[in-house]
Structure prediction request, 154 residues.
Amino acid sequence: MAKQLYNWGKVKAGDIISFRYKSKGDSAKLTTLLVLNQRLRFKKKNGQTNFHLVGLKLEESGTIPIIKNKPVLVQLLETVGTIEVVDKDNELYRLQIDGVGTQGVNRRTYDTLRRKLKQFSVYRTYDYEKARQSPVFLEPISIPKELLRALDED
Prediction:
C-alpha cells in the first residue's frame, strides 16, 4: 500500500485523494477524501467568488477511518458509483460516477446520498486554494477481500 503523487490539475470527481489541510486554530491534518466536486464555485455574502473542494471524508490522519465498518464503506461507495482499480498492487481505487459534468457530480447523486450522508456525517467542503497549498496523493484504501476478487474477475 503506497501513496502515489498526483497533480491538482488532474483531480476529478471519483478520485480518492489525500492532502494536508489546516483549519482554523488547528495543525494541518492529513485528510483522505472521495472527490465529488473538484472546484465548485461558491459566492460569498459579500459578493466575492471562490472555489470549494467537495467530497466525502474517508480517513483522517491517514490511518483513522471515519466509517470503521468496511462493508458499510463499500456500500456507501457503491451508492455513489462503480469501484474501479487504478493500481492493484498499491490498492489504489477510484469511482466511476454516472452523470459527472464539468462541476462534478450532478444533483441526482446528492439526492441518492442524502440519507447516508446524514447517517455518517462524512460530507465536507474545503477551500480549494488552501487545499492546493499541500501536495495531493492518490490514497490507498482497504476494502474487503471478496470485493477485490469480484473486481479482479471484471
In short: The helical segments are 70-80, 107-120, 128-132, 145-153.
